[in-house]
Every structure is written in C-alpha cells, then in structure tokens.
Design goal:
Keywords: Membrane, Transmembrane, Transmembrane helix. This protein has 284 residues and is an all-alpha fold. Helices cover 76% and strands 2% of the residues. The protein has two domains: 235 residues, no CATH class; 41 residues, no CATH class. The protein has a two-stranded antiparallel sheet with strand order 1-2.
Length: 284
C-alpha cells in the first residue's frame, strides 16, 4: 500500500509539473501574440524616439520571458537574435528587399526575433502540438499551399518568391530536426507579417532585389526565413553553452580561484573539514 501511495504521489507531482509547463508555454504564446499586435499598432504612426522606447520595452519583455527557461533555450534565443539582426540589416537597409517606415531596423525588431523564436519553441513543446503534430502539419501545409496558389494566381502583387520560399518551408517541416518549432514559427510569423504589412510598419518591394522575381507583400512562404533563423539557433546553441561554461571555468581558474581559495583556507570561522571538499567541486 505504501508503495502504491508513493507511485500515486509521483504521478501527481509529474502531472502538476506538466500542467505548470503547459501553462507557461501557452502564456508565452499569448503574451507574444498580443504584444506583437499592440506594438505594431503603436508603431504604425509613431516617431522614431517612440520606436526606440518600444525597443526598450521589448528587451524588458524578452528578458522577463527568459527567466524561467533553461540555459540551452536562453542560448538559442541569443543566437536567434544575433543571426536575425545581421540578416535584418542586410536584407532591409542594404538590399531593400523590404523597407521599414524610417528605412531602418526598428529597435524592437532584434528582441522581437527573440520572442518569436521563444514562442515557436513554446508552441512546439506544448501538449497541443505534441498530441496533434500530424494534424497541425496537415493544416499548416494546406493553408500555406492555398496562400501560395493565391499569390501566384489572384494577388495584385504576384508572388513567385513566396512560392519558392514555401517549398523551402515544406522541406524544413518534413525533413528538419525540429518540425514542431518550424510549425510554431509559421503561426507567429504569419501573424506578425500580416499585421505589420497591414499597419504599414514595413512593406515588401514588388521585385526581389536578389532573385529579380515578383514577391508578395508579404510573401506567402515568408515563414521559411524565420525557419532559417530557428535552424541556426537550434544547431549553434549547444556550442554556445559549452563555450560559456568553458569561459566561466577559465575565468575562475585564472582570476577568482587564486584569490578566493587562499582566503577561505585561512578564514578562522570556517570548519577545517569544509575546506578539502571545496577544491574538487571548484576545479571539476
């Protein structure tokens, strides 16, 4: 009987942990979806100074959302922000594939990419996606396919680039290492692109400057660009974490350990049996 009670207690605790994780994942998605709409609405006719203020708020929101995440996810977000920011400056101010209102990269865009990535991860690990991944995949590919067909046949601004990007997106979903993340990216990026374009926060130029093909406003397969950011973040983050741990250990051995340990060894208030146990932990 006692063993059964322990098992039931363990299952109960596991269920509570799962429920807590689900609540957090859905909360992240809800906050980010609402924040995107609110931020883009405020920026639709704002000044450049107010746009910078929105950027500060976006960074605060991102750091707050990351507090409960693992070091690996935090590293993934860091990589996503860095890679996407470089891509933004190349694709918009330099190549002018799409143009923001002030012909810049708004201050809220880099942290916004971090929130977009985190939302994709949160959706991918939620019970909704885990239990219904095949159905969600079919729904997303169907919706994206119809959007692509409309972009080629019915849209005022023809969308050949969107069709190519949609093919890339399909490859990410079917053969990528984290299809749930890419599916989550489809929802959040479609949301932000449609809102941003409708408010006039940015616009995609009719002819892509690289491919010299017509593209929609936004392109139907625009999620593929965000999937590229996600793939880089997923693939690079483990090395970033290892590098950070190595740097911590190196700094400790080079600068902190020679200063801290000798002082502890001669601290009269410490028990002597505590000192031998300290060094192996620090050096390991």
């Amino acid at each position: 009987m006692r063993g059964d009670g322990i098992v039931r207690f363990g299952l109960l605790e596991k269920g509570r942990a799962a429920a807590s994780g689900n609540f957090r994942d859905y909360g992240i998605a809800l906050i980010v979806f609402a924040s995107i709409a609110f931020c883009l609405h405020l920026d639709a006719d704002s000044t450049l100074a107010f746009q910078d203020l929105l950027g500060v708020c976006a960074w605060v929101f991102l750091f707050a959302l990351l507090r409960g995440e693992s070091r690996l996810v935090q590293a993934q977000v860091l990589v996503a922000v860095a890679f996407a920011t470089v891509g933004e400056h190349f694709a918009s101010p330099y190549m002018e594939g799409y143009i923001y209102r002030f012909h810049n990269v708004p201050a809220y865009v880099p942290p916004g990419h971090g929130m977009v990535y985190l939302t994709a991860v949160a959706l991918a690990r939620s019970e909704l996606f885990k239990r219904n991944l095949k159905a969600i995949t079919a729904m997303v590919l169907t919706a994206g396919g119809l959007w692509t067909i409309w972009g080629l046949t019915g849209a005022a601004q023809k969308d050949a680039v969107g069709a190519l990007l949609f093919v890339v997106f399909v490859l990410f979903v079917l053969f990528g290492r984290s299809p749930g993340v890419y599916l989550g990216a489809f929802f959040v990026t479609t949301w932000l692109e449609l809102i941003g374009v409708s408010y006039g926060n940015w616009r995609w130029v009719p002819i892509d400057p690289v491919l010299e093909l017509p593209q929609g406003n936004p392109p139907s397969g625009v999620a593929a660009w965000y999937c590229l950011v996600d793939a880089v973040a997923l693939g690079t983050a483990p090395a970033v974490v290892k590098g950070f741990i190595w740097m911590q250990a190196a700094l400790w051995r080079r600068y902190l350990y020679p200063e801290v340990v000798p002082r502890l060894l001669f601290a009269p208030h410490l028990q002597q049996d505590y000192i031998p146990a300290l060094a192996p932990v620090v050096l390991s």
